[in-house]
Every structure is written in C-alpha cells, then in structure tokens.
Automatic annotation (TrEMBL):
InterPro entries assigned: Leu-rich_rpt (IPR001611), LRR_dom_sf (IPR032675), LRR_Rcpt-Like_S/T_Kinase (IPR051824)
SUPFAM superfamilies found in the cross-reference section: L domain-like (SSF52058)
Compartment(s) where it occurs, according to its Swiss-Prot or TrEMBL record: Membrane
Similarity annotation: Belongs to the RLP family.
GO cellular component terms given for this protein: membrane
Signal sequence extent: 1-20
Keywords: Glycoprotein, Leucine-rich repeat, Membrane, Repeat, Signal, Transmembrane, Transmembrane helix
Any Pfam family: LRR_1
Record flagged with keyword Transferase: no
Membrane topology annotation: Single-pass type I membrane protein
Organism: Gossypium barbadense
Gene3D superfamilies given in the database record: Ribonuclease Inhibitor (3.80.10.10)
Matches recorded under PANTHER family: LEUCINE-RICH REPEAT-CONTAINING PROTEIN DDB_G0281931-RELATED, PROTEIN KINASE DOMAIN-CONTAINING PROTEIN
Protein name, per record: Leucine-rich repeat-containing N-terminal plant-type domain-containing protein
C-alpha cells in the first residue's frame, strides 16, 4: 500500500513538470489521473477533424496488487511549446504521442529509458538535432513516427535492435 501511494505522488509530480514545461493548462491536479476524469481523459472526436484536440491520459491498474501506473499520454495538436521535460523518463508509458504540437529542441536521449514504450509519436513538431542512439533501448517499440521535424543526420545503428518495430 505504501509503495502504491508513493508511486502515484511521484507520477503526479512528473505530470506537474510536464504541464509547466509544455504549457498544458487544462489538467486538473485535484483529480486523480487514474480515475479517467474529464480533465485527464478527453474522448477524441469521432469525425477525425484535425482541428480538434486529442488529449488523453490513461492508467493501467493491476487487479492483483491494485497498483496503477500511467500508461498512455496523448497530446495531439494541443499547441504545446517548449522542450520535452526529463520527467517523461520516470513514467512507465506504453504510448507517448505529442504529434502536431510546437515542441522544439533536441529529442532527449533519456526517452530511451522508457523501455515499456510500444508507441512513440513525435511527428509534426520542431525537433532538431539527431535521432538519439538511446532509442535502440526501446526494445518493445512497435510504432515510431518522427516525420515533419527538423532532424538531421543518419538513423543510429542501434535502431537495428528494435525487432518489434512494425
Ligand atoms: C478540479 O477538480 C476538483 C475535484 O473534483 C473540483 O472540485 C474542481 O471544481 C475542479 N476544477 C476545475 C477548474 O474544473
Ligand atoms: C481508464 O481507462 C483505461 C483505458 O480505457 C482503462 O484501461 C482503465 O481500466 C480505466 N481506469 C479506470 C480506473 O476506470
Ligand atoms: C488520438 O491519438 C491516438 C494516438 O495517436 C490515435 O490512436 C487515435 O486514433 C486518435 N484519435 C483521433 C480521433 O484522432
Ligand atoms: C487545445 O489544447 C490546448 C492546450 O491543452 C488548449 O489551450 C486549447 O484551447 C485547445 N483547443 C481546442 C480547440 O480545444
Ligand atoms: C536515463 O537516460 C539518461 C541518458 O541516456 C541516463 O544518463 C540516466 O541515468 C537515465 N536515468 C535513469 C533513471 O535510468
Ligand atoms: C543491440 O543490443 C545489444 C544488447 O543489448 C548490444 O550489445 C548491441 O550493442 C546493440 N546494437 C547496437 C547496434 O546498438
């Protein structure tokens, strides 16, 4: 029980840092992000209009030990700016998508620490620099999209280790 409470506090602190860094203002920190409440879980529109935000945080909870962790962060077209905060790396995410925002700076290599990631979408931002070789550690990765940024250089050879990529 104690470790569960500790984990949720830690994850919420990470979300605070992310919100502050990227200017995400509509998360309600009085609500538990693992309750699927409205400020954390905005059901996406069905008609696929690109003008409408797609912003979702969901958790995976274990029925056996009751532990929850944040599994999915999607922030499509949320007009977010700034750089990717280091705190992402503390989250055991399976899905991270910040497509179609205005995020600048290099792609942080420490995203390679989120080895639980299956879906990583960074396309349509203003990332610059090279693809971090640390991405070779994302051995569970199935989807990776990086297009429409200002990236330079070659694909790092470590990506050859991503045998689950589809
Ligand atoms: C945030 O959540 C709390 C608790 O559910 C609620 O009382 C409050 O009105 C919410 N704030 C906003 C701005 O929606
Ligand atoms: C929140 O939503 C996710 C995805 O729909 C689901 O897997 C999870 O069980 C939900 N959590 C709660 C507490 O309802
Ligand atoms: C929202 O984003 C997720 C992840 O990219 C995607 O799977 C889903 O189809 C999107 N929903 C809409 C309505 O665009
Ligand atoms: C999209 O998201 C941003 C930040 O989360 C918000 O400020 C903006 O009003 C949203 N736009 C729409 C059309 O909902
Ligand atoms: C995350 O990755 C960075 C750079 O690859 C590394 O220096 C750091 O020790 C890692 N942090 C954790 C908690 O594993
Ligand atoms: C692939 O992974 C193995 C085992 O972790 C490592 O020894 C090797 O250097 C990696 N290959 C590349 C090209 O990074």
């Amino acid at each position: 029980m104690a470790s569960r409470i500790y984990f949720i506090i830690f994850a919420v602190n990470a979300l605070h840092e992310i919100a502050a860094e990227l200017g995400k203002k509509d998360w309600n920190f009085s609500e538990n992000p693992c309750n699927n409440k409205s400020s954390w879980f905005t059901p996406p529109p069905t008609h696929g209009s690109q003008a409408i935000n797609n912003s979702t945080v969901t958790c995976k909870c274990s029925f056996t030990n009751g532990e929850c962790h944040i599994e999915v962060i999607i922030l499509h077209r949320n007009y977010l700016k700034g750089i990717i905060p280091h705190e992402w790396a503390a989250l055991k995410l399976e899905t991270l998508s910040v497509a179609m925002d205005h995020i600048t700076g290099p792609i942080p290599g420490n995203l390679g620490n989120i080895t639980t990631l299956k879906y990583l979408s960074l396309e349509n931002n203003q990332f610059s620099g090279t693809i971090p070789p640390e991405f070779g550690r994302l051995v569970n990765l199935e989807y990776l999209t990086l297009n429409a940024n200002y990236l330079t250089g070659k694909f790092p050879s470590s990506l050859a280790n991503l045998s689950n990529l589809k």
